[in-house]
Amino acid sequence: MEESFDKAVQELKRVDHLFWVSLKYTRTVDVIKHVIDRLINCIGFGLEALLKYSKDKKLVTSIPENAGLRCDLLRKTFSDNIELIEYINFYLRLRKLSKAEYTKREEFRRHVTMIATIDKGEVVSVDIDTLKEYYEKTRNFVAFVKKTINEEEEEH
Questions:
Q1: Could you tell me the sign of the dihedral formed by the alpha carbons of 15, 41, 95, 82, in that order?
Q2: pLDDT of the residue at 119
Q3: Is residue 28 within 8 Å of 18, Cβ to Cβ?
Q4: Report field, pTM of the whole predicted structure over 0.90
Q5: Which of 61, 66, 133, 144 has the largest CB neighbor count within 10 A?
Q6: Could you give the residue ranges of the DSSP H alpha helices within 18-114?
Q7: How big is the chain by its Cα radius of gyration, in Å?
Q8: Is 78 helix (H, G, I), strand (E, B) or coil?
Q9: Per residue in 47-71, is it b (16+ CB within 10 Å) or e — as a string?
């Protein structure tokens, strides 16, 4: 559980560097895509930590390898936690965004934008400001995971 959480924190540090340093100096869609992929990894490790926490609490018996099945299991296990379900939906949306076909706009400029098409033609534009929102949401998710895991330790 702690190992997965530590991996999530490490990924967040990498995102931090990509966002504040790499993107600042290169301003390319490739860097935006790398940031999205790192956010996905970070959230994935956080979800894994929650699953391990659930297993320790005997709420689940096994942890699936497939990300979609993991999300379904977490939705069932924490069905009353709306905040977690929103994070899971955000995670799945990022995964779709990462796998989607995309085009580039205004590379090497402040308004560099990745334009992707997901879910039956929904067009999503990811610029630096949108990426910052994703980054903040992921940081909030890591804090949420830490709080959830630490509640368990305080009970003992």
A1: negative
A2: 86
A3: no
A4: yes
A5: 144
A6: 23-26, 29-56, 67-77, 82-99
A7: 16
A8: coil
A9: bbbbbbbbeeeeebeeeeeebeebb
